[in-house]
Design goal:
Layout lengths: L15 E7 L2 E7 L1 H6 L10 H6 L21 H7 L7 H4 L1 H11 L11 H6 L2 H17 L3 H24 L4
Antiparallel strand pairs: 1-2
Helix pairs in contact: 7-8
Length: 172
């Protein structure tokens, strides 16, 4: 039988267990049912990702209490309790909080990498050529010559197929 774990805030047995891993460090919070309700974890709408990842469940304050959206009036407190934003303008208003939260969740906030093959298949030839040319220029700038050679060959093959397809199309 598993060991009885006590709530971090009172002496009752914990029934809610939250685990966060940041920079290979594990943080665990164990809560009883009453404390979980008091922290807003009693329903799916009450779970606030902002609180969970910024440490507010452990009593740490983020120092961003004065933030509010000028368009809809949504406040930092609203964001903390609901875990979502009120309108599109909130993304600009709450940018510091969102960036802090995203940084805690994963290492970057910008996409770096290639597109999935199924998306590449949907792109028309000109878009694919443009994408490959941009990737080729980036590889050259980064002095990644092996990747540049692969992209050069891929671009040549794509252009050859494109020329062949246009040569075999019936003239109208």
């Amino acid at each position: 039988m598993a060991e009885n774990i006590q709530c971090n805030y009172c002496e009752n047995p914990a029934t809610v267990h939250l685990t966060q891993i940041v920079n290979n460090q594990v943080k665990k919070i164990d809560l009883c049912e009453d404390c979980a309700k008091n922290k807003g974890l009693s329903s799916p709408q009450g779970i606030s990702l902002s609180d969970m990842f910024s440490g507010a469940l452990e009593g740490q304050e983020t120092g961003k209490q004065g933030l509010a959206c000028p368009v809809c009036g949504f406040t930092h407190s609203d964001f903390r309790t609901q875990g979502r934003l009120g309108c599109p303008a909130c993304y600009k208003s709450f940018r510091p909080i969102l960036m802090e939260t995203l940084d805690a969740m994963h290492p970057g906030t910008h996409h770096v990498g290639k597109r999935p093959n199924h998306l590449m298949d949907r792109m028309d030839t000109r878009q694919r050529e443009s994408h490959i040319e941009e990737s080729l220029q980036q590889a050259i700038a980064e002095e990644n010559y092996e990747e540049a050679a692969k992209l050069r060959d891929e671009l040549a093959e794509l252009r050859a197929k494109s020329e062949l397809a246009s040569a075999t199309e019936p003239q109208q």
